[in-house]
Amino acid sequence: MILEKVAETRAASGETPMLLALRNVGKVFSNGVTALSKVDLTIREGDFLSLLGPSGCGKSTALRLIAGLSTPTSGQLDWRGSIDRSNTGFVFQEPTLLPWASVFDNVWLPLRLKGVSRAKAEPAVVEMLSRVHLTGFENAVPRELSGGMKMRVSIARAMVTKPRILLMDEPFAALDEITRFKLNNDLLELWQDERFTVVFVTHSVFESVFLSSRVVVMAARPGRVHGELAVDAPYPRDEAFRTSPDYAALCRQASDVLVDAINSTAGSHHDGH
Amino acid sequence: MTAIEDATLKLDPEEARRARQERLERIGKWVLPLAIMVLAIVLWDRICVWNEIPQYILPRPGVVLQTLHNDAGLLFSSLLVTLRITFLSLALAVIGGVGLAVLFAQSKWVEMSFFPFAIVLQVTPIVAIFPLINIYVNNQTVKLLLCAWIVAFFPILSNTTLGLNSVDRNLRDLFKLNGATRWQQLRYLRLPAAMPYFLGGLKIAGGLSLIGAVVAEFVAGAQGQSSGLASRIIEAGYRLNAPRLFAALILISLTGILIFLVLSLVSHLILRRWHESALKQER
Questions:
Q1: Any idea of the CA torsion for B114, B117, B119, B122, to the nearest 10 degrees?
Q2: pTM of the predicted protein model
Q3: Which chain A residues are Cβ-neighbours of B180 within 8 angstroms?
Q4: At A12, is the pLDDT very low, low, confident or very high (cuts 50, 70, 90)?
Q5: Residue A4 has pLDDT above 80, yes or no
Q6: Which residues of A touch B179 (CB under 8 A)?
Q7: What secondary structure letter does DSSP report for A144?
Q8: B interface mutation test: which of A98, A145, A155, A165 has the most B CBs within 10 A?
Q9: Which of A43, A197, B32, B85 is 20 to 30 A distant from B281 in Cα terms?
């Protein structure tokens, strides 16, 4: 439904409409730490946007603000259309599954909380599991799965409600490289089929460039947006892209911005004292 | 046949030693405790004979067994009385403990306000409270139940409270994101997450409810108002009927062991698919 609407809007206007804008957003914790300061960021419908930065730059805080798990101290979040939190999917760094529940029940959970019965949810759950290549594992419990498979369940759970925005908080950071590459590819495939919006938090230059259409680089103390890089390489991106000179050049650009961001923090740190 | 021999041959000395060790441990786990038990009983019997200890001080194991058989009617009807109190109080401890824990879990304020009362109930010796209960409560069964309940409910309350509060923070966020109601969060997240803790408390409470029942009977029995196993023990003590005393004691012990085993089995069956404690150790 939502996707159709998006497609219509796109066709009508000829350009990608804005989905969400963070305007001058700041967040100060009760212990006095300024996690975010004056963040301006526009997320467009269908973006694959990465938030890239060193630890402590507030990228996870920004994600939690977007998810509605936390409220901004200053500034505001403007959503196009109505804000419906149930249209948000969230993938944590850990798979965060219910350990006592089967794979099916874990994916069913968001629908179940909305009052959808098992029988009614089954087509959506089964479809989502096949999309993440987990058909046949419906009755397994999480501990019987590998780390990568658990993360697939987590993604299926986030996507089963067909959210218009998917928020991912360093989802593949704990996985080995081979598994991570595979999940990168599968995630892109899913995104290309459905064209939902993704905000992807990562501290890996290579991962952010491979996946995203936009890389937003953040700096720390206080957390802020330092710069942005458009990744113009066309989709679909596959293993060939991963070894291409274009990719290497883009990674280099992103890396330069990141180094600059880190230095800006170190500079202000020295200036401040 | 040859394949198996080949496989054995291929094991290096260290692995072979480990395999042998494991085999021995598997057998020893059962044989050793049994052997020691049998040895202890034989020794008990020999000590009685060698020292010519009179039956009213320390009866020989054979005599105890004989008494267990001869007085079976009397002893088992008493056991039933004790068991009834034990299981009723355990059931009430589960209902009360889990109910209070769920109530506490609704709000930190409720927990902070009322948890001290639970601790007061727990730390005051039941033997000291019983005379009061004796004054306030008329019904014999209710009296005993109340005693056993006070002893047994605390581990369930304390463990379940801990479990309900030990939910993964990300999972809580996930439920919040999906607009879960308080009831849904309890039903689908906090109660299942508290299950291993609750079952741990249940195992302790099972033993305690038996102890509570026996202690309550003891205190009540001293006033000649009870017909449970404890009163049989007191009675046998007055009459210097040591064999019956021992027989009753053994019955109580066996009951305790049985309760523990059954609750352990229940716990294992519920947790075996997902919880670390119930998983086979892998190397």
A1: -140
A2: 0.84
A3: 113
A4: very low
A5: no
A6: 85-86, 113-114
A7: G
A8: A98
A9: B32
C-alpha to C-alpha distance for B76 and B228, rounded to whole angstroms: 9
Q: Which domains occur in chain A, in start order?
A: 2-35+43-93+165-268 (3.40.50.300)
Give SS3 for A90: strand
**Phi and psi dihedrals of A41, rounded to 5?**
-155, 130
DSSP A215: E
CATH topology of domain B61-278: MetI-like fold (1.10.3720)
Cross-sheet strand order for the sheet of A34-44: A34-44, A18-28, A74-79
B282 three-state secondary structure = coil
Strand order in the sheet with A165-169: A88-91, A165-169, A197-202, A48-52, A214-219, A224-230
* Banded pLDDT at A14 (limits 50, 70, 90): very low
* Chain A contact set for B188 (CB, 8 A): 98, 109, 112-113
Q: Given pLDDT bands bounded at 50, 70 and 90, which one contains residue A2?
A: very low
pLDDT digits (tens, 9 = 90+) for B222-281: 555 568 888 888 888 888 899 999 999 999 999 999 999 999 999 999 998 888 776 654
Neighbouring CB atoms inside 10 A of A228's CB total 13
- Output phi, psi for B156, to 5 deg: -70, -45
Partner-chain contact A96 B184, CB within 8 Å: no
pLDDT at residue B139 is higher than 50? yes
Flag if A69 and B174 touch (Cβ within 8 Å): no
CA distances from B5 to A76, B9, B14, B22 (A): 74, 6, 17, 19
